[in-house]
Amino acid sequence: MSLHEISSRLKRGCEVIRIVLIVSFVGMVMEFVFAYFSKSMILFTDFVHWAVDTALEFMSMIALYYASKTLRRFSWGVLYMETFLMLITSIAIISFYIISFVDYVNNIIYSANSKVTTQNPLLSLVTLSGGFLTLYAFAILRKEYEKLRLEILKSEYTHALIDVVAAFISTIGVVVTALTRNPSTELLTVIAGFFFALHSITNIVEDAARSIIGVEEDKELIYNIKLKLSELENVKVKNVDARKIGSFYIVTVDLYVDPYTTLIELNEMRMKIIRMCRSVSEMIYHVDVRFYPDVEKYRKILKQKRKGIKGKSV
Q1: I need a surface site. Which of 19, 95, 236, 271 has the fewest CB within 10 A?
Q2: Euclidean distance between CA atoms 177 and 313, whole angstroms
Q3: What is the mean pLDDT of the chain?
Q4: Cβ neighbours of residue 130 under 8 Å, at least 6 residues apart?
Q5: Are 180 and 116 spatial neighbours (Cβ–Cβ below 8 Å)?
Q6: Contact 80, 243 (CB under 8 A)
């Protein structure tokens, strides 16, 4: 597969996730509006879940966007900043929610006349609409995955399928709570929704750790890349780094080359190395190649030239 085809697939994948991001944003705003006016704890929990998922989609879109720039160096600085901001935002949302959740639980436990916050069964239309939005996102992601075969889309549609289940549970919880006015039913529904939100925030924390700290280094992948690069002539491998972002890898290859190698030769070598790395694993979406002059070889050439000059002078 050519670099142009790889870049086209990644750009299309980025466009798909952008569509899903818009869908997620619409669902988040819808849940917030109805949660604010109804004061329903179930809807408020759903809003938190939507907000965290929207942040997760945004992070995936940014990472895939820069990965699609196959002929440019990967913008780690921008990714670090975006990841950090999304992480802080998500933690702030969850922290605010936990404070509200603790007050909600204390009200149920210590108040003699505690009432459910979800009293209108028609609010189930909100969670049901959210479920259909998620199902729509799932259908798009699944369809595009079949075309592009990008693992990140598979990961996204699997997550969307889980969110459809979450929406179904919330819908049942809203209806049963509103009809029975049972605080225990509402509490169980809220806890279930909070569990799904925590699952999403865990994904954000893991992605942040992988991209910023570089944990979970795939030693086997790095070894296979080095083994593949050993086929090159007149090149010494200085270092190979493979960082996982979500469900794909960004690889950096540092090489020692002959100081007298021309720019045209370096460009051809770079293209070849990118193709070689991609042949090792389809999970490698972007490859940065950096060249360094082989100082030892340069010194040997200088010594040989000096010896030649001395020989002629004698």
Answers
A1: 95
A2: 100
A3: 84
A4: 27, 30, 31, 46, 50, 167, 170
A5: no
A6: no
CA 13 from chain centre, in angstroms, equals 12
- Report the relative pairing of strands 248-257 and 284-293 from DSSP bridges: parallel
**HEC states along the chain?**
CCHHHHHHHHHHHHHHHHHHHHHHHHHHHHHHHHHHHHCCHHHHHHHHHHHHHHHHHHHHHHHHHHHCCCCCCCCHHHHHHHHHHHHHHHHHHHHHHHHHHHHHHHHHHHCCCCCCCCCCHHHHHHHHHHHHHHHHHHHHHHHHHHHHCCHHHHHHHHHHHHHHHHHHHHHHHHHHHHHHCCHHHHHHHHHHHHHHHHHHHHHHHHHHHHHHHCCCCCHHHHHHHHHHHCCCCCEEEEEEEEEEECCEEEEEEEEEECCCCCHHHHHHHHHHHHHHHHHHCCCEEEEEEEEEECHHHHHHHHHHHHHHHHHHHC
Question: Is the distance from CB of 27 to CB of 133 less than 8 angstroms?
Answer: yes
Query: Tens of pLDDT along 151-208?
Result: 888 889 999 999 999 999 999 999 999 999 999 999 999 999 999 888 877 777 776 6
Task: Find the mean pLDDT for residues 261-269.
Answer: 88
Going by C-beta distance under 8 Å and a sequence separation of 6 or more, which residues neighbour residue 9?
148, 150
Q: What is the per-residue pLDDT for 305?
A: 60
Which residue from 231, 230, 236, 229 is spatially nearest to 294, judged by alpha carbons? Answer: 236
**pLDDT tens for residues 35-73?**
999 999 999 999 999 998 898 888 888 878 877 776 666
> What is the signed CA dihedral for 193, 195, 200, 205, rounded to 10 degrees?
150
Structure tokens belonging to residue 27: 């669902």
Where do we find the tokens 């780690």?
76
